[in-house]
Every structure is written in structure tokens, then in C-alpha cells.
Design brief:
Distance between the termini: 45 Å
Strand order of the largest sheet: 1-7-6-5-2-3-4-8-9
Number of helices: 10
Order of helices and strands: HEHEHEHEHEHEHEHHHEE
């Protein structure tokens, strides 16, 4: 049912659904690239790029679903971007993600910094990505969701051939692909209906989750020659 629904959108399951579902059960952190993931990668004159409420809600629903899956333990959430985006930091602040990393040129080092901060392992991470700068992270993380962009067919072939992705979204970059990936993971976990039911009721489960989420104090890091430094 899940495979049929998302394949109908044009999504590609590179990893078999049963295997992907097993890997997903261990996930305790969600890491997102920014440009080309939450947006189409086009910059404003000020050098930033936007996000949509549709994708933002997707991240929140997925975090709630993982919270339910792990018995009330809040998953870690972070953005790792190769540049500086004021709106990415806005999303981190508003949604109480755990961390924002900017100027990350070699992202695997940044990932290890994040994991050390929270006593996690790479296989416990679900990673949403879209381009070459992200591959050092997609090589080691447990669940890899690649945002589709038809303009890079050779890149997509490379990622698939080298085992660096589990699922390629049917939705294109800038067309709510984050929401698609979040709903897919919730569906594979068997949590989508529970998330909707509990969000509808609000009390007590969603309220408990929300209070935990709101208590997160986001940290902001700039990655320099000596590694991540507090911003």
C-alpha cells in the first residue's frame, strides 16, 4: 500500500521497502540539507532561500511520529548547510530543532560533531539531501531520502549506483518534497494514522510531545577551519 502510493507519485524505492522499514526503526535523528531540499535552491539578493509551511509541518509530524515510536523520546533534528541562510535559522528557531550548522564544506565532520553532542550513531540518522556536497553524509547514515531534480540525471545515476540513497522523491526540488519524504517515513513506521489521531485530539500525547519540543534550546554553529564553533 505505501509502496504503491508513493510509486504513483513518481517516487523510486532504491532500497526494498522491507529493508528500508527495518532501517527506519532505529532512527533517532533527522538531518536536513537546506538549499534544494526545502526550496528549489534559488537565492534572493540577500543570499538566502525560503521554506514552505507544508514542509515545516512535515518535519513536525515526523518528529512526533518518531517520538511516539520511541516511547516519548524526542528525536534530534538539525540542518546542515554549506552556506549561511537566515531563513534556515528562522526555521530552526521557530520549530525548536536542536542545531543549525552553516558554512559546512565537509559535512561528514559536522555530522560527527552533531552525533557526539547527542550520543548517537550514523545508522540512527535519517538524512534528506539533494546534491554533491551531501554525499559524505549519505554514505554513512541509516536512511537517505534524495530530493528529485530531473536536471541532474548523471548525478542521480551516480548516487544510485554507489548505494548512497534509499528513496528518491517523486516531487521535484521546491515542490514540497520534504513533506513527501516525511509522510513516507511515517507511513513505513506505521505511525501516520496515530500521528493524525493524536494531533486531532491534541491531549495528552501531542501536548506532551509539543512541550518537550518547545523546551529544546537550539544551538547555532559556524563551521570554520577548526570545526564547528558557536555562532
Amino acid at each position: 500500500m505505501i509502496e504503491k502510493t508513493f510509486s504513483a507519485l513518481g517516487g523510486q524505492f532504491i532500497t526494498p521497502v522491507d529493508t528500508l522499514t527495518e532501517k527506519l526503526k532505529a532512527v533517532r535523528a533527522i538531518v536536513f540539507d537546506w538549499d534544494g531540499v526545502f526550496n528549489d535552491g534559488i537565492k534572493t539578493e540577500a543570499g538566502s532561500s525560503s521554506f514552505s509551511e507544508v514542509d515545516s509541518m512535515g518535519t513536525n509530524l515526523l518528529r512526533f511520529g518518531l517520538w511516539l515510536h520511541h516511547g516519548g523520546q524526542l528525536p534530534v533534528a538539525a540542518i546542515i548547510t554549506g552556506v549561511t541562510n537566515t531563513l534556515s535559522e528562522t526555521l530552526v528557531r521557530r520549530e525548536h530543532f536542536h542545531a543549525s550548522y552553516s558554512q559546512a564544506k565537509h559535512k561528514i565532520d559536522v555530522l560527527h560533531h552533531l552525533l557526539d553532542q547527542h550520543n548517537l550513531q550514523p545508522h540512527e540518522v535519517a538524512f534528506f539531501f539533494d546534491d554533491a556536497l551531501d554525499l559524505s553524509v549519505s554514505e554513512v547514515t541509516g536512511v537517505r531520502i534524495m530530493i528529485r531534480r530531473n536536471a541532474n540525471p548523471l548525478f542521480m545515476q551516480y548516487v544510485i549506483k554507489n548505494g548512497l540513497v534509499d528513496y528518491v522523491t517523486g516531487s521535484q526540488s521546491g515542490q514540497f518534497a520534504v513533506r513527501e519524504g516525511c509522510e513516507l517515513l511515517l507511513g513505513l513506521l506505521g505511525q501516520f494514522d496515530s500521528v493524525m489521531d493524536e494531533r486531532l485530539r491534541y491531549f495528552p500525547a501531542y501536548d506532551n510531545y509539543y512541550q518537550q519540543r518547545q523546551a529544546v534550546e537550539s544551538t547555532y554553529w559556524v563551521v570554520g577551519s577548526n570545526g564547528p564553533e558557536p555562532k
